[in-house]
Amino acid sequence: MWTSKRRAVVRALYVVAFPSLSANSFAFQSTVTSSRSRWLSRQHSTRSYSVSSIMMQIDNRVALLQVPVTESKSTNLKTASDYIRKAHDAGAKLTVLPEIWNSPYATSAFGDYAEMLPNVGDKLTEASNEGETSEAADNGWGQSSRLLMTLAKEYNMYIVGGSIPEKCDNKIFNTCLIINPNGEVVGKHRKVHLFDIDVPGGICFKESDTLTAGDGVTHFDVDGLGKIGIGICYDIRFPEFAMLLTQHYDCKILIFPGAFNLTTGPAHWELLQRARAVDGQCYVMTASPARTSPPNDDDETDTKSKYPHYSAWGHSTVVSPWGEVIATCDEDPAMVVTDLDMSKVDEMRMAIPTMKQKRNDLYRLVDG
After folding, report:
1. Cα–Cα–Cα angle for 314, 303, 289, nearest 5°?
2. Which residues lie below 8 Å from residue 151, measured CB to CB, with a gap of 6+?
3. Residue among 266, 255, 333, 327 at smallest CA distance from 99
4. What pLDDT was estimated at residue 223?
5. What CA–CA distance (Å, rounded) separates 172 from 111?
6. Given this model, what pLDDT does residue 23 score?
7. pTM for this entry
8. What's the rounded Cα separation, in Å, for the pair 137 and 131?
9. Which residues of 51-78 are buried (b: 16+ CB within 10 A; e: fewer)?
């Protein structure tokens, strides 16, 4: 049965907390989940291991990078580089950055931090890797995409590049790049559903003040993991979008870099992931920025912020096709590492074959 086999997967999971990126070893916290799938890090023992002892890449191992984001792009690039290296050291085959990791999450910041991005099929030339004049430099690609392409090739891993603000044709998009181990762009997703909400007594945020919505679905293939579909944050709220990826394109994993807030996060973050996992009978993975403290305006020594502060919910998470949380963390900087048992997807789809039981005489999912 599912339950007995699932326990073997859960025992293989851990979270790496990052109290200091310069440390030689990190706390690997056990993430055995309860029936309510809650984060129980404070109730489990912590063991220390040397990261250098886990250098070999492990098939089907994935890492979610919950990085802190600042107003300094150079600091954000350095942080992302350090976390990607730690994912490589932990043996990850694929790693995921959060939504808007190179910039503050503020509509007023997106234009300031936006970069020109490569397209599917593009990759860095040898000259560009050496810092010389190159076709990539001529195309004007920004620092963020060039970093991801360089590290994907250096570490021989897939990088799902969270999202960064992209400037193109006098428009700004919220865009995720997917880079393969050759440093080539194999997927480019522009956020389809813009985050325009106004919750009374909660939060008001309108991405459409600055951003333009994308107009396509994105998926890519990884040996051993199968087809993987990509959405960004608010995209997860639309079940039809996820169904298109799982049912029309046979995606077995859905990845949503996201930055839910302190109003929607505790209410819907886990709920939506579990719903999409059960709907699609697939794995769902999310990567959030770490939560950061707002500047203290009363403290004269504290740096004044140019942009409104955004508090991310955090809790980067992996959910199984059965709809259970099998790995997660709290709001602090962390790396969530999971070994995915892809046989669970086929097992779930055979045991409860909803995809073969659709009433197409009553309703139908249409692509485009």
Report:
1. 15
2. 81, 84, 85, 159
3. 255
4. 96
5. 7
6. 31
7. 0.86
8. 9
9. beebeebeebbbbbbbbbbbbebeebbe
For tokens 């907390």, the residue is 17
| pLDDT confidence of residue 51 | 47
Structure token pair of residue 20: 């200091």
Residues of the chain with pLDDT under 50: 1-13, 19-53, 131-133, 135-136, 138
The DSSP H or E segment spanning 272 is helix 270-280
In sequence order, the β-bridge partners of residue 365 are none
CA dihedral 205→208→213→218, nearest 10 degrees, is: -20
Which residue type does 263 have? T
143-155 and 73-89 are packed helices; what angle lies between their axes, rounded to 10 degrees? 10
The separation between the first and the last C-alpha atoms of the chain, rounded to the nearest angstrom, is 38
Q: Across the chain, where does the E strand assignment appear?
A: 14-17, 25-30, 46-50, 61-66, 94-96, 158-160, 164-168, 171-179, 185-190, 196-198, 204-206, 218-222, 226-230, 253-257, 283-287, 317-319, 325-328, 334-339
Asked if 156 contacts 181 with a C-beta cutoff of 8 angstroms, the reply is yes
Nearest to 226 by CA among 339, 317, 343, 326: 343
Residue 168: what are its φ and ψ, rounded to 5°?
-160, 125
| Residues in the chain, overall count | 368
**pLDDT, tens digit, 9 for 90 and up, residues 110-125:** 999 999 999 999 999 8
Residues with catalytic annotation? 99, 191, 233
Crossing angle, helix 343-351 and helix 2-10, to 10 degrees?
160
| Nearest to 179, CA basis, from 164, 158, 165 | 158
313: left (phi over 0), alpha (psi -120 to 50) or beta: alpha
Residue 282 contacts residue 321 (beta carbons within 8 Å): yes
